[in-house]
Every structure is written in C-alpha cells, then in structure tokens.
Amino acid sequence: MTPAEWKTICDQITDEMRAHTRAFVTAISTRTGSYPKLVGSGAYLLREGQGFLLTCEHVANQPNLEHQFWTSDKQLPIREAFTLKPDPIDAAWSTVPDEMWSGINHASKAIPYERFALKHSISDPEEVLFFRGFAGENAYYDWVDYHTPGSGYCSQEKREVQHDPRILEMLWEPEKATITSQTTQESREKMKFSDPAGFSGSLLWNTRFMECHRAGHAWDPGRAVVTGIVRRYDPDTKTVLALRVEHLRAALEGDLSS
After folding, report:
1. Is the pLDDT of residue 121 over 80?
2. Does the pLDDT value for residue 94 go beyond 80?
3. 14 confidence band (pLDDT: 50, 70, 90)
4. Which residues lie below 8 Å from residue 156, measured CB to CB, with a gap of 6+?
C-alpha cells in the first residue's frame, strides 16, 4: 500500500466514522453567566435498557452542566447526579431520564453497551483509532445561538507507552493534521486545531479496519468498538491519553450492578 493509498483510506475511514458517531456524542457546557461555555465532551450509552451520559470525572465536576441532543438547538440542564470515579479512572456518568429522551425532537442515539470492547486490544500495530469530540476553541456564541461544532480524528496507537499501564496513547499532532475530502468549505475555514481542551470525555474507537483488511472482510463503521475514553492531551509525548476500556467497564459494572 503506497502512502497516497493509505492517505485516501484514512480519509474515507475518518469521514465514515464521523458520520457514524455523530448521533452518539454531545458537547458538555457549564452556564455560569448569560451563555454556556464548553468544558468537555460526552457520549450517550445504553445499558440494560437505561440511557446514560458518559464523560470524564474532571468534566462532570464542573457546576451547572448542560448537554444538547443532536439536531436540537436546546441546551438541557443535567439534573441527575453524576456517579464520579476520580483519578486514576477519571470517568463519570449520569442517568438520562426517559422523559428527557422523548421530551423534545432530536436525532441523538445511545451506544449499545455491547459495542464496548471487553478490553483494549488491536490485532495490528497499524490499526486505525478514532475519536470525535468538541474543542473549546471551536465553540462560540454569536448573540443568537450557542455553537459547538464537533471534530473527528483518526490516528494510531503509540507503541512505546510512557504512562500508567491503564492508559493507552494515540498519536495526535495537530500541526500535521489533514482535512478530509468531505469536510465542507465553511468548516475548513472555521475549524481550529491548536488547542485540544474540551476533548476530555470523548470515546476512543478501535475502527478494526486493519483487522478486517487482513482477514479479507469488507469494512464498515458498524464494526468499530469503543476501546477507551479520552482523558487529556499530553504535549510532551504528543499523544491523546485515554483510559483503556477494560478499566472503564470495571468502573461501570461495579457501580451499576451493585
């Protein structure tokens, strides 16, 4: 596979994963003044028939939090208390009441828990990882509406880990990022890549593209599985640090089953 062919493939994977995950994610904002301010990213999870909003503990600890269903322009206050799992887990989740799901028109969906891998494991060191979240530098209020455009990224796992073994590292160098072919001209002109603050709480996906490719199977984004949750960016190693999914599952199952 030539570099040009690989670039074309990554372009396709990114665009397909962006579209596939759009309904699962939400910006999380705090309202301490007249309009919201973005503080992190979150995802909707469905486990045993109950919907949850999942994010990082350091995001959930902020006051007066709100989220927003996809295709709705209404900011919804998060009234249900978060279950908080501080560092070294740094995860949190809150029940999304059924009446909230059905109370307004929207197109958001919850990720079935079955799509969370049992543990982080990639079959090929070249496997493509993906996350979609909301950077604070791209959120803005135009005196009419509050806008939180999301962005999605594909990259690969760093092979030599320098952090806690519970953490996986995804290579992320924004100055080397390329914009995919399906990105609109308006987004190309507005989107910034310099500050990753706000991505905390984004789910990290193992696309399983290389796994399918090596096995001779056709790939589609429905084959992807959640393999971690993004905690922060480490500028020293130029990696996005994510908690491995097995530790996230242990926290979720230990609490929700008790």
Report:
1. yes
2. yes
3. very high
4. 125, 126, 127, 128, 129, 170, 171
Minimal CA–CA distance to 240: which of 202, 206, 214, 209? 202
Q: Calculate the dihedral angle through the C-alpha atoms of 253, 59, 22, 141, rounding to the nearest 10 degrees.
A: 160
Residues whose CB falls within 8 Å of the CB of residue 138, separated by 6 or more in sequence, listed in order: 148, 149, 151, 190, 191, 192
What CATH number has the domain spanning 3-22+114-245? 2.40.10
* Tokens 């990639």 sit on residue: 122
Domain at 24-112, CATH from 2.40.10.10, 2.60.120.260, 3.40.50.720, 3.40.50.2000? 2.40.10.10
Helix (H) and strand (E) counts for the chain?
A: 6, 16
Q: For residue 5, is pLDDT > 70?
A: yes
> What tokens does 22 get?
């759009």
Tokens of 131: 């996350």
